[in-house]
Design goal:
About 15% of the residues lie in helices and about 45% in strands. It is mainly beta. The chain contains 1 helix and 6 strands, in the order αββββββ. It starts with a helix and ends with a strand.
Length: about 60
């Protein structure tokens, strides 16, 4: 994730918010558990694993 955030910063984007979510809309890895329609989770040693993230920001003038 750091490479994505750093690329945005290098492009002049002011990162305002980063969120991680412990689910995916796709069953894309072995061992995923369907929690609800379109919501698959994965745990590792009893901990939830972040699978999806969102970033919001603004282009800095200059």
């Amino acid at each position: 994730m750091s490479s994505v955030i750093n690329a945005l910063i290098s492009a002049g984007i002011q990162v305002e918010r980063v969120n991680e979510y412990p689910f995916s809309p796709y069953n894309c890895f072995d061992g995923m558990v369907k929690q609800a329609p379109g919501r698959f989770t994965l745990s590792h040693k009893g901990n939830e694993v972040a699978l999806v993230y969102s970033i919001s920001g603004r282009k800095v003038a200059g």
